[in-house]
Amino acid sequence: MNDADLVALIQDIEPAKRNRGLQLAMQLYGGAMLSAARTITLNNADDAVQDAWISVNRSINSFESRASLKTWLLRITINCSYNQLRKCKQHISLDDVGNDAGSELFNSKGHWQVSLSPWTDDSPEKLLEARAMNECIEHHMADLPHAQRVALQLTDFQAVGVEAICELLTITQNHYRVLLYRARLSLFKMLDHFERTGDC
After folding, report:
1. CA 110 – CA 146 distance, rounded (Å)
2. CB 19 within 8 A of CB 27
3. Which DSSP category does 106 fall into?
4. Phi, psi angle pair for 112, to nearest 5°
5. Which of 113, 179, 184, 195 has the fewest CB atoms within 10 Å, i.e. the most exposed one?
6. Strand partners, 106
C-alpha cells in the first residue's frame, strides 16, 4: 500500500477503516517513531510516541503530502518528544559548528576510510565481548550530544534521508554533515578504544 492509499484509509470517515489505516501505519512506522523519540528523550519515548499517534489521529485530515507520510510522522514524534522534555524541564541545544581532528578517518562521502571487520566468531567469549561492546555503544550513544545522536540514529540506523533529517531538526545540510561527522568520529574512537583495551 502506498502513502496516498494509506493516508486515504486513515482519513476515512468510517471508524473501522480509519482504525485499520492507523494500525497499518503503526506497523510500518511505529518502530522508526520510537527510535526517533529515543534519540531525544530515552526515558519518555513511549509517552512521546503515544502523544504523536494522538496528534496524528487529530490532524491527519490536514496532511498535504508535501513530505512523505514517514517524514510527517517523524516530525510529529520529534515535536512530541521535545514536549516531553519540556515537561521534565530538560534543556536541549544543538552543537556549535566547528572543526574536529580526524578527517583522515572518513572519505569525501562521509563513509569510513577503513571498514570494521565483520564479526564471525560465535564462541562464548566472542559473544560476551559482542554483548559488552553493544552495551558500550548504547552508553556512548546516550552520552552523545542530542543533535549528534539524532543525526547518527536517523541516518545510520533508520535510513532516513538527509533532507528529511534537516527538516526534522530544522538545520542546514552543512550543519547536519558536521553533526554526523562528529557523532561518527566519536563512535569510531570509542570502538577503537574498546578493541584495543576491552574497556568502554
Report:
1. 20
2. no
3. B
4. -60, 140
5. 113
6. 112
Cell of 127: 559473544
Distance CA 139, CA 143 (A): 6
- pLDDT value for 92: 44
Residues 6+ away with beta carbon under 8 Å from 22: 10, 53, 56, 57
SS3 per-residue string spanning 112-170: ECCCCCCCCCCCHHHHHHHHHHHHHHHHHHHHCCHHHHHHHHHHHHCCCCHHHHHHHHC
pLDDT digits (tens, 9 = 90+) for 99-128: 454 556 667 776 667 665 555 555 556 556
Other CB atoms within 10 Å distance of the CB of residue 1: 12
SS3 41: coil
Q: How far apart are CA 166 and CA 91, in angstroms?
A: 20
Asked if residue 78 lies in contact with residue 36, where contact means CB atoms within 8 angstroms, the answer is yes
